[in-house]
Amino acid sequence: MAILPITYLSSSTKVMSSWRTSKPVIDYSKCTRCAICWKFCPDVAIDLVVDPNLNAPSERFRVLEAPSIDYDHCKGCGICGTECPFGAIEMVREEI
Amino acid sequence: MPITIPREEYMQKGHTACAGCGATLSMRYVLKGMGPKTAVTVPACCWSVIPGEFPYTALDVPLLYTTFASAGASISGLREGLDSQGKEDYNVVAFAGDGGTADIGLQGLSAAMERGHNVLYIMYDNEAYMNTGIQRSGSTPYGAWTTTTPVGLKRDYKREKKKYVADLMMAQNVPYVATATVAYPEDLERKISTAKSIKGPKFIQILSPCPPGWYYNSADTIKVSRLAVETRVFPLYEFKNGKLTLFKPAKKPNITEYLSLQGRFGHLKEDEIKEVEAAVAERWESLLRKEQN
Q: Which helix (H) or strand (E) element contains residue B238?
């Protein structure tokens, strides 16, 4: 039988949060669920989830998929904050 | 707004790229476009450290590390090996930086394209040898600061113009040549899907902004990438069946908006900015002429 090299671990098991100096915080009352932040995240740290309990600009947005930040893998580059067309993402300085 | 980009992620979280890296976004969209039946070859470049140290890997597809000069040779070998096993439905992709493409790997690339293997060669262009510490490459633009073209008192910035590898590939009549950038992910993903549907050699050059190398705030990666296209510094085009299609952006911001965001152009004086502007305009005109012919 052939020997298959399967000795690898997915990098998603690593925690990268110590790289961050500021963290993005989403204000869901401004978020229109456009997913632009999801598109431009280089760390794949934004997931799209349906959560009716999240705040929304109006009722019809509640059923849509909303971005949720994975703070274990976000490196705090701030691209989502710059690209959000509605100013719904604010970069907050990390404190120890 | 419906999402037209595939949802599946083949590049995982937890990779070791710098914050705001453009090359990781390029890889993310390339793999979204190519799908799971893909083998990726990486020569020495930033992506040879981004997947993480052994035993970690950030990609869900097979990844082969190769030497600096042999990205082109390795995809040729992989392709022929897979074909001889009857695995013709697998895609073979080389993911090389600009040093491994424009300078060191150029002969391997040119030979692989000439032999006509069914492969896709991606050049992610961060405009210098970023992995080893920002040394100038053939793809570094005119006027840029790098560690081997330090400005200093002699104003020793890069005096040579950028080498356009995509133009070289057009001259070689590669069946599909395109340029793309990370600010337009739908366009990038569409170009990858188009390349996937074509049998034969394909070449795509992706401008991938680099926050530490270009000296800008990591939050501005997409902004810089978009400005590069809008100011015509990095024209987006597609070359298919011998026909060139050039993307003409609606807005034309002043070139200083692009240059002033980046510290590597911070030393340029007004007359030097004019020179950069003239070179950009000249290239744009020559591409327009090529499109009409």
A: strand B237-240
Minimum-distance CB partner of A75 among B19, B22, B182: B19
Annotated domain spans of chain B? 22-292
Is residue B55 within 8 Å of A9, Cβ to Cβ?
A: yes
What SS3 state is found at B189? helix
Fold topology of B22-292: Rossmann fold (3.40.50)
Helices (H), chain B: 22-34, 71-84, 106-115, 165-171, 185-197, 211-214, 221-230, 255-260, 270-292
User: Using 50, 70 and 90 to split pLDDT, how confident is the model at A2?
Assistant: low
Reported in sequence order, the residue ranges of A22-61 that DSSP labels E, i.e. its strands, are 22-26, 46-49
How many interchain CB pairs under 8 A, A with B? 102
Cross-chain Cβ contact B17/A42 below 8 Å: yes
Which of B14, B28, B182 is the closest to A13 by Cβ? B14
pTM summary value:
0.93
Residues of B in contact with A2 (CB under 8 A): none
Q: Sketch out chain A's domains with CATH numbers.
A: 27-93 (3.30.70.3270)
pLDDT band at A69 (very low <50, low <70, confident <90, very high): very high
> How confident is the prediction for chain B on average, in pLDDT?
93
